[in-house]
Design brief:
alpha/beta, seven-stranded parallel β-sheet, about 230 residues, elongated, single chain
């Protein structure tokens, strides 16, 4: 059993106990950041070749307050370059899909079950410009590999297609640049809307506990002790 198996009330007790272990400064920092986190938009990184590009996307996500990232590994293993990500991966919920024959569809199926619309970033006969994206529904944005672009599986299973307007001779942006432009525009538009884009209470607690736990040593031992105290509280 882990803290994630607790109900919300017991998670709150667990977090309170954990806050007695970490510094007040750390608690204030993570609670300030969590209030700016959102899972309204979820980037999907599909089959990225270069670690530096994947790392740059993660760093962008953390800086923009995006908590959830999905990674599809069809032919390429996802890896992170620390001097580019600057530890951003430690603060994100990264879910990988790499165990099936069609990892892209598995990822999309999960996202739809969670209520997300899926937009593939690529030119298409029926595409829309970035500025035309409807932000009133939770949305996953798919970014393809540097070489092949978005896979046929993604094209066949996406709900719609989006492109970033360009005005030069080059046909496309680098993947990390494309993600930065797209996610900055959409999150800025979201934060200036009346949409309640904050994390749910339970996801907020789960994230706070995960972040606070990074500040302590012997995490497994501490988790076991705190779980025992929470479950034995009458």
């Amino acid at each position: 059993m882990t803290y994630r198996d607790l109900d919300i009330s017991n998670k709150q007790k667990y977090y309170s106990l954990l806050c007695n272990i970490i510094t007040q400064e750390r608690r204030q920092t993570i609670e300030k950041v969590i209030d700016l986190r959102t899972d309204w938009f979820v980037p999907v990184i599909e089959n990225i070749h270069k670690a530096q590009n994947a790392s740059a996307v993660l760093r962008t996500c953390d800086c923009l307050g995006l908590q959830e990232v999905r990674v599809v590994e069809n032919n390429n293993k996802f890896s992170v370059t620390d001097d580019i990500s600057l530890g951003a991966n430690k603060w994100l919920n990264i879910r990988k899909y790499n165990s099936g024959d069609n990892n892209t569809k598995l990822c999309f199926d999960d996202l739809r079950a969670e209520g997300y619309k899926i937009i593939a970033t690529m030119p298409h006969d029926n595409d829309i410009d970035l500025q035309q994206v409807d932000i009133t529904q939770k949305t996953a944005i798919v970014f393809g590999s540097e070489v092949e672009g978005i896979s046929q599986q993604a094209i066949q299973n996406a709900d719609c297609f989006m492109k970033i307007p360009m005005y030069g001779f080059t046909e496309s942006f680098n993947i990390s640049v494309s993600a930065a432009i797209t996610l900055h525009y959409l999150t800025d538009k979201l934060r200036n809307s009346k949409i309640d884009w904050h994390l749910s209470e339970e996801k907020r607690l789960d994230t706070l506990i995960a972040w606070a736990s990074q500040s302590i040593t012997s995490k497994d031992k501490i988790e076991k002790e705190l779980l025992s105290r929470v479950l034995n509280t009458k």
